[in-house]
Amino acid sequence: MAIQWSRRRFLAAMAATGLSLRVPSLLAAAGDKAITRAIPSSGEQLPVIGMGTWRTFNVGGDQQLVAERTRVLETFLESGGTLVDSSPMYGSADDVMGEALESLGAHDRVFSANKIWTRDGSATREQDRASSRKWGIERFDLQQVHNLLAWESHLDTLKQMKADEDIRYLGISTSHGRRHDDLAQIMEQEPLDFVQLTYNVLDREAEQRLLPLAKERGIAVIVNRPFQGGSLFRRYQSESLPGWAEDAGCSNWAEFFLKFIVSHPAVTCAIPATTRVEHMQENMGALYGKFPDEQQRRQMADYVAGL
């Protein structure tokens, strides 16, 4: 007779055998279903936890560090992730991602997201091609105008590139809570597939206008800085999770912070960045189990605000 394993029972069994650090990939192997959200413009499903590369993949030609980042990417993919986000702004991140993808033979396993970051509005295609060569791919799944830089010119070109099937989706990004009014106006006027913005349990301005607008307009949302660049851990890691955290699907702070974000109905994917395999494993735990409901989300925000 087949034994039916609940997620809780499976986690307990893995912890008892000393394999708890590999829980996300083991859950994937055991058939536990990764949480996904649909891209509104197409219906394509994306896992709600992606991977960022800001700072973390900017390691130059240090082959030991490149190998370490390759293991981080491998853990992400084995745990069910697909969307990887980078930018020419991130130093050597594009080059390192290309080395990692080549080493893992994983070019066809990622949903590739990159950005256009140049004041030269005529250089959109040139920068896109330069980044795709570094990644070793024919085209990006998603190309975004980074931090609204020369966005009018770049977005016009990206529209044509999408029509020509040189990219699959187009978008625009902002970060650190900047230029929200400008972003909202663009969202109201332009045919965007994606927006990228900052949102976390403390930085919640996006809830007021941008997230409802994305839901209304059918725009997918990628969330950057989900841990405030790591400051949430520095601030709260020594604190205990509330006793009800498990009921909200959270067994550690990484899951707590990430599930607060991706449980918002307008959010498609969050992109935490890390340099360490064990931290990636914790992040990817948020891809499984259940979402907190709206009442639990309010509890989560109130709990953190009260610490």
Describe the protein:
The protein is of the alpha/beta class and 307 residues long. It is 40% helix and 14% strand. It has twelve helices and ten strands. Strands 3-4-5-6-7-8-9-10 form an eight-stranded parallel sheet. Helix 3 (63-78) packs parallel to helix 11 (277-284) and helix 4 (93-104) packs parallel to helix 5 (124-135).
Short description:
It contains twelve helices and ten strands.
Q: State the share of residues found in helices, binned by percent.
A: 40-55%
Cα Rg? 19 Å
Specify the biggest β-sheet. 8 strands, parallel
Strand order, largest beta sheet: 3-4-5-6-7-8-9-10
| Share in β-strands | 5-15%
Provide the low-confidence segments as ranges.
1-12
Mean pLDDT across every amino acid position: 92
Tally the helices: what do you get? 12
Anisotropy-based shape? globular
- Give, in order, the helices and strands: HHEEEHEHEHEHEHEHEHHEHH
Derived from helix and strand composition plus strand pairing, the structural class reads alpha/beta
List the SSEs and their pairings:
Elements (H helix, E strand, L loop, with lengths): L6 H10 L6 H7 L6 E3 L6 E3 L3 E2 L10 H16 L4 E3 L7 H12 L6 E6 L7 H12 L4 E6 L5 H13 L3 E7 L6 H10 L4 E5 L11 H8 L2 E5 L6 H6 L16 H10 L6 E2 L6 H8 L9 H12 L2
Parallel strand pairs: 3-4, 4-5, 5-6, 6-7, 7-8, 8-9, 9-10
Antiparallel strand pairs: 1-2
